[in-house]
Design a protein that fits this description.
By secondary structure, the chain is α/β, with parallel strands linked by helices. It is globular. Strands 3-2-1-4-5-6 form a 6-stranded parallel sheet, sandwiched between helices. Helix 3 packs across helix 4 (about 80-95). The chain has helices at about 15-30, 40-55, 60-75, 80-95, 105-110, 125-135, 145-150, 155-165, 180-190, and strands at about 5, 115-120, 145, 175-180, 195-200, 215.
Length: about 230
């Protein structure tokens, strides 16, 4: 019987793509650089690749912050200080609270049904705490657990070991994990023995051969089996 929900934050509860693009636009404007639409796809390609390397255990979060915008600016031919821009980007991202469609309604529903709700994220602890609090969503969570806090990143067993060590009152068979990433969330959860729900937002990807217990294309659909 499911008693607790572990839910990813970026692109599951908060819209990372919109938050990141706003942060980049703002930081560019502050530096007198005209933002162009082709800049964001370059950010996404570099960012996704680096976070994939983190999930594989090949690099650290600090490596991402050191390399991300330097690589992006090299590709864009921009002469900006990548590390300095990164620092400002993170400051702005701390304040971003754009929600994924139906996320608030789902959290309200789960909270009303008395499920325990835990955020599980590979991002920084203060960043996720601040964003959820500023957006008025923190009240729905029984705890916020990031890879920074737990000392390991999804999809590793160490991440989940550390989570359950901190929340011993629930067991694996009482948990549903919801996330948008097939690698970090769904593969990590399934390999650990958790029931999983893949949030394939708007059916962006083919769900053929999906190994998740549940697949939804909208967050409201989760209410049908909870």
């Amino acid at each position: 019987m499911i008693k607790a929900v572990l839910i990813d934050i970026d692109d599951t509860v908060l819209d990372f793509q919109k938050c990141a693009e706003w942060s980049i636009k703002t930081a560019m404007s502050e530096r007198g650089v005209q933002y162009a639409a082709e800049m964001y796809p370059v950010f996404k390609e570099v960012n996704d690749r680096l976070w994939s390397e983190l999930e594989k255990g090949n690099i650290t979060r600090e490596n991402i912050f050191d390399r991300r915008f330097s690589e992006i600016f090299d590709k864009l031919g921009l002469f900006l200080d990548g590390r300095e821009f990164e620092a400002r980007f993170i400051e702005l991202l701390h304040e971003s609270t754009e929600e994924v469609s139906e996320a608030r309604a789902l959290l309200e529903y789960l909270h009303g049904k008395k499920y325990r709700i835990y955020a599980v994220s590979n991002a920084m602890q203060f960043q996720q705490e601040n964003r959820l609090k500023k957006g008025g969503l923190a009240v729905f969570f029984d705890g916020i657990y990031t890879s920074e806090l737990l000392g390991a990143a999804k999809p590793s067993r160490e991440f989940f070991d550390a989570f359950f060590a901190r929340v011993p009152e629930i067991s694996k068979d009482e948990v549903l994990l919801i996330g948008d990433s097939l690698t970090a969330d769904i593969a990590g959860g399934k390999n650990y023995g958790l029931t999983t729900c893949w949030f394939n937002n708007g059916a962006r990807y083919s769900s053929s051969g999906s190994f998740s217990d549940f697949v939804v294309t909208s967050l409201s659909s989760i209410k049908l089996f909870m």
